[in-house]
Structure formats: C-alpha cells, structure tokens
Amino acid sequence: MSTIGKLNLDHLVGQQVGTSVLLNKLGHGAMSAVFVAFQKTLKRQIAVKILPKSLMTEKTAAFFQQEAESAAILAHPHIIPVYEVGETKEFLFFTMQLVKGNELSYYIRRTQKNIVPSKRFMPLKTVITLMLKILDALAYAHDNDIVHRDIKPDNIMIEKHSKRPLITDFGVARVSRTTGKSDRLLLGTPMYMAPEQILSGTVDGRADMYSAGVMMLEMLMSRLPYPPYRTAMDLLKMKLSLKDRIFQQRPSQVHPVANRALDEILFKALAFNRDQRYASCREFASQLETYLNKMTTPSSAR
C-alpha cells in the first residue's frame, strides 16, 4: 500500500486551500500530511491537514471526515480547535490551530535520556497537573458523546511557552450516542489500548480513561512496565491473558516521590474490568486533585 511519505507534495506550497495559502509541510502520518498555512482573512498562521485523493479509500475518507467533525463539535481549551473543512481536486482538508510546541512523547523521551539518573522521571506535580487538564478535556468530550479511542503521548501537544496540553487526532473517535458498539475494527494503539478495544466490544469513555492512565504511568516511570514482547499482537494477547497483572511495576517502586496512595489511584483507572474503574474521567481527576492538594510539602508526598 502506498503511503503519503512516498508522495512529493512540494507542488502544494503556495496553493490556495479555503481561506488559506499553504506555506510549508510540517509533518505527515501514514495517509495524511500537515502543512503550515497563512489564513488571509484573519492574517494568522494555522495548520492544514490534507488527505490526498490518490491515497483515499472509503475507510480513510470516513476517518478523516470523522476527525474533523469530532474536533469541530468540541470547544475546550485543551482540545485543538478545527476552523474549516473542505475539498480540492487533489485532496480533502481541514484547518486547525497551529500549536507551537512538541508532543508529550518528546518530553517523556527527553526526560528518559537525562544524564542525571535522579532526573529521569517527570516531576510528580507536573504529571498530575497535565493529567487534570487532559482528563477535564476528555470528560468534556464524553459529555458530548465523543470517545477519542487513541489517547497516547503522540496525540497530546504541549504548547512551548504556556505548557498547555492539547488533545489532537480524533481520527478514530466515535460518537458514542449512535450505537455504543465498535465497528469490529481494531482501532487505537496497542501499548495504550483498553482491553475492551482489543475485544471489539462496546467502548465508552472508560476506554479513554484507561489509555490516559497508561500515559500517566509512562510519564511517571519514563517507560511502560510491560513484560517482554516481540510484536504488537503479542502485547495484545498478554493484555487479555494477564489482565490486571500486565504491569510489572508500579510508580512507587521507581519514582522518587510517588507513593502507594498514588499507585492505588492510578491503578483503579487501569483495571482490566472497566466496571472496576472510575465511573468517569471526572471522578479519576477528582482523586488526583485531592492527592495533589495534599502535597503541601515535598515530604508529604513521600
């Protein structure tokens, strides 16, 4: 299958797309690319995501349209807003806020590579503060019947100066009020995927909660404590067989500040059985906020 990385898109620079002009290519995934553009009407730089028709299938077109529509429904300070959706002779497109910063995954990798061993873990207050904002955005999306289904560090942008987290890439999101059932496709990223996504059963906001919990675990430990595995399919099988034993360590065992109380809060969100998790991302956030408020001094969190 051809991918967008094999296409020469240089000829698109300078092309008019809706109310904007494409300036330069910012990056690409398997099927879509993102350009920096200048929006002439409001005289600002924005991002434009395109799906070339040469790569388009009924499925990829549906996901692309779904990403634009899902994000457009949502107006939240921690969700990247969509401005415009359209089509040219060559591609489908939508425009959105241009975030000047990096993915959360970049900061996790940078922390992991710190030359000082004691600094190879993100500060606990930073992790919880980020999680509170992300969980608030997810709770808002769920209130609007949108389940993201692919929460992971690559889909969280961190603004360079404000350090504000922004959720992006609603390409595999679903409107939960339609049927509540998955479409029997394995959608999401195996390392962060909730067990019910693997089983292709009903998926609701608790799947996003699980994925956010895995992401928090990675922020605290600078890695994910899975047993050794060779392929993504091996990992998925282990998740189903080991269930609540899939994670081999807890943050309190490695993070210099995290304690067992935090382990308990986090691992409730990571329960294999979703009925044993928090009822909502808002409830998970409430527990984290209470924990954060008790951190009046560094020693109180030990």
TrEMBL record:
Chain ranges of the Protein kinase domain: 20-292
Annotated binding of ATP, by residue: 49
Signal sequence region: none
Matches recorded under InterPro entries: Kinase-like_dom_sf (IPR011009), Prot_kinase_dom (IPR000719), Protein_kinase_ATP_BS (IPR017441), Ser/Thr_kinase_AS (IPR008271)
A GO molecular-function descriptor: ATP binding
Pfam families documented for this protein: Pkinase (PF00069)
Keywords associated with the record: ATP-binding, Kinase, Nucleotide-binding, Transferase
Protein's UniProt name: Protein kinase domain-containing protein
Organism: Desulfosarcina alkanivorans
Lineage: Bacteria, Pseudomonadati, Thermodesulfobacteriota, Desulfobacteria, Desulfobacterales
